Amino acid sequence: MDTLKLPRPLVNAILAQAQQSPENEICGLIGGKLGVAENCYPIDNTALDQTRRYLMDPKEQIDAMRKMRENDEDLIAIYHSHPHAPALPSETDLAEAEYPEAAYLIISLDTVGVLEIVAFCIKDKQASEVKLELV
Q1: Which is it for strands 27-33 and 74-82: parallel, antiparallel or unpaired?
Q2: Is 27:45 a contact under the CB 8 Å cutoff?
Q3: If I label 12, which of 22, 105, 111, 126 is the partner at 20 to 30 A Cα–Cα?
């Protein structure tokens, strides 16, 4: 994946979700068709230390995947926030990435004034940046 196309309203929804939880990592899935993101599926973070990592609630993740199938969508991206770190994959992010066909979006709140959102393709514990295109 070279470019990830995201609708502005979807980006705004993800950024708002991150701003509503500035001390804890938020997470979710993005579904779409033909490589274009269409729907955001926020999922509760069940990690013990939500300030430094995320763990998607298994039931909510299954429900989101089912909704994507019902909507004839593919998994386009997995997103989470870094409240106090840059928008770069952590060692944990690299080690736990299990969907090489999906982009990984990281939202950083560790900025002044503007939130940062960066997309990556993670395969074999290696990350390469993916261009974001707002549509």
Answers
A1: antiparallel
A2: yes
A3: 126
